[in-house]
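Protocol step 4 of 5: obtain the predicted structure for the target chain.
Materials: sequence only (see below). No template structures provided, no constraints applied. The aim of this step is simply to have a reference model before the mutagenesis design in step 5. Sequence pasted as it appears in the construct record:
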Amino acid sequence: MPSPRKFEPHYRRIIADIRKRIADGEWPPGHKLPSTKELADLYDVRSQTTVRQAITILIETGELYGHQGLGVFVAE
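Step 4 output (structure tokens):
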């Protein structure tokens, strides 16, 4: 019998991919991230809240920063 696959929450998958894009230089420091709507479409999630949760965690860890009205950017 195959072992059951461990469920990974969508926000963790999004965090991992954003970190990979930053590490790979695809999104360098100062790069503006796509909107939450665009990210939700990119990651094929129904809720923009899931994307916001991932972004909030990355802001709290200092990997991203936000400017109200301007968007979210990759930190230095």
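Step 4 remarks: Helices lie at 10-23, 36-42, 48-60. The mean pLDDT is 93.
Proceed to step 5.
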